[in-house]
Amino acid sequence: MLGIDKFSRVPIYEQIVSQIETHIMLGEYKPEQALPSVRALAVELGINPNTLQKAYAELERKGLCQSAPGSGRFVSRDAVAVIKEQAKMKLEQFKSIAGELIRSGITKEELVEALKSITVSLSAPGREGSDEA
Amino acid sequence: MLGIDKFSRVPIYEQIVSQIETHIMLGEYKPEQALPSVRALAVELGINPNTLQKAYAELERKGLCQSAPGSGRFVSRDAVAVIKEQAKMKLEQFKSIAGELIRSGITKEELVEALKSITVSLSAPGREGSDEA
Amino acid sequence: MLGIDKFSRVPIYEQIVSQIETHIMLGEYKPEQALPSVRALAVELGINPNTLQKAYAELERKGLCQSAPGSGRFVSRDAVAVIKEQAKMKLEQFKSIAGELIRSGITKEELVEALKSITVSLSAPGREGSDEA
Amino acid sequence: MLGIDKFSRVPIYEQIVSQIETHIMLGEYKPEQALPSVRALAVELGINPNTLQKAYAELERKGLCQSAPGSGRFVSRDAVAVIKEQAKMKLEQFKSIAGELIRSGITKEELVEALKSITVSLSAPGREGSDEA
DNA sequence: GTGGTCTAGACCACT
DNA sequence: GTGGTCTAGACCACG
Fold this sequence. Notes:
The structure is a homotetramer. By secondary structure, the first copy, chain A, is mostly helical. The first copy, chain A, has 5 helices and 2 strands, in the order αααββαα. Chain A has helices at 12-25, 38-45, 49-61, 79-103, 108-116; strands at residues 65-68, 72-75. The first copy, chain A, has a two-stranded antiparallel sheet. Chain A starts with 11 loop residues before the first helix and ends in a 17-residue tail after the last helix. Chains in contact: A-B, A-C, B-D, C-D. Chains A and B meet through α1, α4 and α5 of A and α1, α4 and α5 of B. Chain A binds a DNA duplex through residues 6, 11-13, 37-39, 47-51, 53-54, 56-57, 67-73.
């Protein structure tokens, strides 16, 4: 269900956070539902449990899930709302990057065209393995 | 003329590269014009000369400037063209981030609105010091 | 009659111990009175019988109840006295936390005010699920 | 300058967070000042660098310090304000524990007496190595 | 030198 | 079984 890219500049634990957020957004992990256990998912992804623990801790910090030691980790009731809220914050980042592009000589019209061409799929977002910042 | 944020996730040398590119685009550094010397600029910015050296090396690698041993470092004649070219590559990154936002529940229309609201200014671009990946 | 929070940092069995102590203090569980059976209460609370067993064992260890094999588990005659005694020990913990607050910039006067504002109610005490140590 | 108790129930990294907060509060770590490096302090305390990294990450999350990769970690300008703010939150926890004590048969007057007897010192706060929750 | 990430492997308490 | 913490040791990029 999740896929990671070990060679990406984006840390593995962040890739996992992003992907789980996407899955929650898509309703594939529902509120109150248990997330995969640290050990099980670590084995499945072929990564160290500590790395996954870090990802889960971050999700918990954001209020997207809660851990119940001894019994598991569960998606928060208001997880979707939290994600939508944080998405609003990311708009600033979006505008920043768009501004950079515009300063580089790309027109707003070209950016709007690029937006239209996007089709949403489900995969690891924001992979930027190349060294072009 | 340049400003750096040592707490940004973006490496200092990349911040400098971006900003010099912006200045070139805006015509403030003109082709054939000399760039500030490593030592002088390092002092001005309060950073390590090695860091600045790295930034200049990156600019050279991209073909934006050339060093003339003994007399300094000069903006390339085709610097603007090179920047425009590389901007096209960044469109992919732009689409990736936009896709991420859309998966998070933001509509394309909202993104287009955000684009319209942008006014190009001159500052350090792409500061992403926050922990919102 | 009892309520547990599986997401609390406080182990479930400790939550139960605390709450039963509170009920004893309030006279809702009287000396010589029988406590609910492990199986029945486990079902009612939706928890594992082993967890409840652990809570009862702890109560016995403290001398708050005694098990009479075959006929159930009963509140000790001196349960209230035992609880009062252990409360004295907790004063140290109280002072430790108060000291921490004072070091954080809160005045003793504010703490006294906070004390005055307390009204005793009946609920799960000491829930500290937040990440404020 | 810092001291940890490896046998405490409180995780080492939380002990460090608390103590550094105290030191900031006392003005021993001043805003803009660099904190000890991860490696150096880990050696000094005899703990693993990862553990310290976790503590520092938590401080950063709270907004008490900022890391500048490659050059160090610095106390935030508004660190003291942040600590004072979070102390206000802790008042709720304080009231919760006080309420528990009162339900256990201690009078408010006794608590006020306990408060008066406190003298603020500088040491690891909240050590609760015993198993009396 | 700095911080950041990751792996491997262990131990603990709780359910 | 679950999550949480810790150690040991390694590698990387950045300054």
